[in-house]
Structure formats: C-alpha cells, structure tokens
Amino acid sequence: xxxxxxxxxxxxxxxxxxxxxxxxxxxxxxxxxxxxxxxxxxxxxxxxxxxxxxxxxxxxxxxxxxxxxxxxxxxxxxxxxxxxxxxxxxxxxxxxxxxxxxxxxxxxxxxxxxxxxxxxxxxxxxxxxxxxxxxxxxxxxxxxxxxxxxxxxxxxxxxxxxxxxxxxxxxxxxxxxxxxxxxxxxxxxxxxxxxxxxxxxxxxxxxxxxxxxxxxxxxxxxxxxxxxxxxxxxxxxxxxxxxxxxxxxxxxxxxxxxxxxxxxxxxxxxxxxxxxxxxxxxxxxxxxxxxxxxxxxxxxxxxxxxxxxxxxxxxxxxxxxxxxxxxxxxxxxxxxxxxxxxxxxxxxxxxxxxxxxxxxxxxxxxxxxxxxxxxxxxxxxxxxxxxxxxxxxxxxxxxxxxxxxxxxxxxxxxxxxxxxxxxxxxxxxxxxxxxxxxxxxxxxxxxxxx
Length: 450
Ligand code: HEM
Fold this sequence. Notes:
The chain is an alpha+beta fold. The chain has helices at about 10-25, 35-45, 45-60, 80-90, 100-105, 120-130, 140-165, 170-185, 190-205, 215-230, 235-245, 250-275, 280-285, 300-310, 340-345, 360-365, 385-400, 440-445; strands at about 5, 65-70, 70-75, 95, 165, 315-320, 325, 330, 335-340, 405-410, 430. It has one domain (about 5-445): CATH 1.10.630.10. It contains 18 helices and eleven strands. The strands form three sheets. Strands 1-2-3-9-6-4 form a six-stranded mixed sheet, with helices on both faces. It has a three-stranded antiparallel sheet with strand order 5-11-10. The protein has a two-stranded antiparallel ribbon with strand order 7-8. The model is unreliable at about 435-450 (pLDDT under 50). The chain binds protoporphyrin IX containing FE. Protoporphyrin IX containing FE binds near residues 384 and 385. It comes from Promicromonospora kroppenstedtii.
C-alpha cells in the first residue's frame, strides 16, 4: 500500500467525476430527488462507481487519488487507514465545515455545528451531546420517543389494512409526524408546513453555492422552530434543548429535523429486506417481548445499521484541510478537499466477506464497528451524536411494522444475496400477504411496545 497521493490523469479524473461523483450530486446530497434516484437504481450507479474506484485503488496501490475539479483539488481516499486519519483528525486539521458543505447547509442551518468554525464548535458540539445523549443506547426520553413511534406505527397499520398497501409516500407522511413529535412535541405533529418550508430550503441546498439563499423562507423556518422551543413540551428534544441552552437551541434544531429524513429512508429499506426474508422477520419479532420499556432491540438496530451500510444515506463524507498536511512523501496545501465515498468502503469485497449480503450479525459481534471503512454515522470527534436516538426510533418502528405479514413488491431481488447496489426507496411499496398472518391493528402495538 502506498500513502503518497497520486494525481489522476485527465481520463481517470473524468471517470471519477462522471461515474462516482456526478450520480451522487444528481441524486441530491441534502434532499434526494426522486426522479434522479429512480434513474440511479435503473443504472445501478453505485455498482459502476465501486468498480471505478476499486480499479484505481488496485492500479495505484491504495494511494489517495487526487483530482482537479475546476480550481478545487479533491483527494478521494481508498484505504480505511486514510479514513481513520481524516475522521480522527477532525475538526483540526480536517474540518467538517468544508466548502461544499457550508455552501449547502447555510441555506437552512447556518449555525449548525457541522459547518461551524472550530471556535463555535467548542460549545455547539457539547450542546448537541447534552441533548442527544450519544453515549446512551436508550435516551432519557426514550419512552416518550417510542410512544411517538407506537402512535405512528398504528397510523401506518391503519392505512395498510384499510387500503391493502403502504407506499413510500404514505410512510413518509406518517414518518414526519413521528419526527415532529419526537423533536418538537405533539403540538407540532401536524405542522406539515414546517416540513414543506424545510424541504424547499433543502432543495435550494442541493445546489450549494449555485443557488442564492432564501432569507425570507429561512426566517420562516426559524420562527416556526422557535415557537415550539420557547414553550417546549416535556419528553422532546426541544425540551432538552431548551434546558441545555435556549439561545443555542434554534440554530441546531434544523439539522435534527433534516437528518431524521435519512433515518426514514433507512427504515424503509430495512423493512423491505425484512418483508422479503422470513428468517430476518422472525428474528426481529423474536426479540420483542414484554419487559423493560423501552426495549433496546439489538437485532432490529443491527438491521437498520445494515440498511445504512448497504445503502448509505450520507453518500460522501467530506473534509477540508485547515493547513498543509503531509501524506507519505507529499505535502498538500491547506484548503485541499478530501472525500470518503461511503458506497465504496461499505461494500468492499476485499475487506468484507458479507460485502453484498445482509448480515446484521456483523454489527452485533463487533466486526463492523472495528472497521474504519464502515462509517454510516461517520467516526471520531465529529461522528453523529444522533446515532442512538436514530437507532432507538427506527428499530422500534421496524419491529412494529414487522409484526404485519408484509409483502414487498419486487421482493425477489431482496430475498437473497447479493443485494442490489442501488435501491430507490421512493419506489418501495408493501402489501399484505394473502393468507399470511395479518394481526389486528392493536396486536403488533401491544407486542412490540416493550
Ligand atoms: C440515518 C440517520 C442519520 C445518519 C446516517 C447520520 C449520519 C451522520 C454523519 C455521517 C454525520 C457526520 C458527517 C461528517 O462527518 O461530515 C452526522 C453528523 C451529525 N448528525 Fe447525524 N445522522 C443521522 C441522523 C441524525 C439525527 C436524527 C440527528 C439529530 C436528532 C443527527 C445529528 C447530527 C449532528 C448534530 C451532526 C453534526 C455533528 C458534528 O458536527 O459534530 N443525525 N450524522
């Protein structure tokens, strides 16, 4: 393995730009574009991207790959050791507040910790940790969060049994009710306008610096969030935020709302595999039992993690160097961009026996956690502080929905390994199996309430 970055020739740089980076940008880094995501699935763009990067890694003996995009120098790493260096070296000398991310996130969360200066990060990161409690598998307010999930799951179940089906858009409507209740409280549950404003700003954010900022709409988002944070309802992230620092809170909440969108997509994809594989469904249901409230549900959590490994929602983890950095025999100037392309590391057959398979066990036995290439929630000092809240909420929703004997359309692609490289979650649709066990709406709620 070579650690000295290598400049790609123009043809190879163009292949990385068109086969690896362009599909990620086209799908939308901040909010997915449904048509582009469907196109990506049709062309299985992640498979092509992985092939291109694997070929270049082999040819250049694992050296970081340097390409020029206009005036910008971007280094694409291909070895887990380089991922570790970048993530452990954050926020200095590798800042997460990189050029492209600031361009995008300033549209709706200019004060968010992820794009903060190192000085502001010193109080914003601890603030986020105080609210989100990343060290706790089950948050102090976990019971309130899983209550919100139970309510949402019951609503989804009603739609499923009334109409015979559940599609991605129906799922998403109710998912936002759960998210609004967890973050802002029951009074916010029906505030679709807040989600619409956030989505509009996220669509602008997809264009990063190429789109002007809509300050009027951003102020509208801020007003709505502040109205809930000012008089917070107990058992919500808003209440924890109000207690931790009412002045800091409104600037951080937009990130929490935005990031829950990815958790919904991950749950939908995990549910598709659960519906296609009776043995996975049986294991999800087996760990649901009356007992301590709210339960940890390790296997269901591992299923969501596996969904995030196979189909990462953070398509690329970006860093900019804050000063000159030496890599092997080369020193790269400050301001160099670095990219960790998740799909490549997450399914690398050179490192992972289960690269294209569904193997939640690898999260349970510690194999995946020890691998610096597997970074669905990033790693190091800037890793996602919301990870455990996400896994709590999504694992409970998965368990509730798994109680129904679901059939997923196009399920044969998911019933066995290898799993498709790209999965368009917007296209997922579930029905009830004919002749299968169809529990009453109340049944699964009670069973999985533990
Ligand atoms: C499936 C859902 C989610 C995934 C896959 C995810 C993933 C990530 C990743 C990869 C990062 C780091 C990005 C980087 O290193 O540049 C991150 C940061 C962050 N996430 Fe999440 N996230 C999710 C949901 C959430 C939720 C629901 C919250 C809050 C409720 C949250 C809060 C944060 C915060 C505050 C940061 C910034 C951390 C910092 O800058 O120090 N995330 N997330």
